[in-house]
Amino acid sequence: MISFTEAQVYAWLTAFIWPLVRILALIASSPVLGNKSVPTRVKIGLAVAITLLISPILGPMPQIEPGSIPGLFVIAQQIVIGVAMGLAMQIVFVAAELAGEITGLQMGLGFASFYDPVRGANTAVISQYMNLVATLIFLAVNGHLLMISTLVDSFTAFPVGGQALHADGWLAPVNWANRIFFAGLLLSLPMLATLLITNLALGILTKAAPQISPFSIGFPLTMTMGMGILALSLPYFPPILDHLMREGFQIMLKIATLFQGR
């Protein structure tokens, strides 16, 4: 008859809980996998499955009681690391949405928004379209698998333990967030340049022929030009977003390394 001591069962549960907390935190804050449309049971099941697969290769876990003060400190530490890594990938999607927001405003579609039940707020149509493009590219390059692989590597960069988080780790997500405006402007630059030329042409036309109403032809023209250049620019989005996503995976691992103080 196979029997287990209480100490053995407790050691197994402890070795399972610590990585599970970090994995759950990353899945909850990451793009695609952490989307509110994904059922909570699916997220928990995925986190448990990943933990069962990787826990044998993570090495010994600290023998700390989860309910104790040091145990709660380790749990909070794993949550911070997981959320920070997940937000690093969310920034790429925010940059794509920012590009859609800028483009929509220049096209005159700033009022064209609808209620997004996932975010719980009104979202611009072009912004939502750019988010869908980023999601498809993320899945096409196996971003979900690369994100899980980076998560597994983070346990080597920052093993589970009671050490304090280094200050450099807190600054890494902030510095990476600076790329939101740069990447958003870079993605929207073709549309901005085209619409700027269109608006200048409308201004010259209005001066040359005052009897032409700019409101009657301006909105249809800017919307048509914006849609056209957006369709033409679409093939150039994947390389840019792919580069940002791969850079995001590196930042995820860098965050764990900087929290370690290396």
**Could you tell me the radius of gyration in angstroms?**
24 Å
Task: Please provide the ordered H/E string of secondary-structure elements.
Answer: HHHEEHHHHHH
The share of residues in extended strands comes to under 5%
> Number of DSSP strands?
2
Structure description:
With about 260 residues, this protein is mostly helical. The chain has one domain. Helix content is about 75%, strand content about 5%. It contains nine helices and two strands. A two-stranded antiparallel sheet has the order 1-2. Helix 7 (about 180-210) packs antiparallel against helix 8 (about 215-235). The longest helix is centred in the middle third of the chain and has 39 residues, at about 70-105. The radius of gyration is 24 Å and the shape is elongated. It starts with 5 loop residues before the first helix and ends with a helix.
Write the topology of this structure.
Blueprint: H1 6-29, H2 40-54, H3 69-107, E1 113-116, E2 121-124, H4 125-140, H5 143-157, H6 167-177, H7 179-208, H8 214-233, H9 237-260
Helix pairs in contact: 1-2, 1-3, 3-4, 3-6, 3-7, 3-8, 3-9, 5-9, 6-9, 7-8
Features:
elongated; two-stranded antiparallel ribbon; mainly alpha
Can you give me a brief rundown of this structure?
The chain is mainly alpha-helical. It has helices at 6-29, 40-54, 69-107, 125-140, 143-157, 167-177, 179-208, 214-233, 237-260; strands at residues 113-116, 121-124.
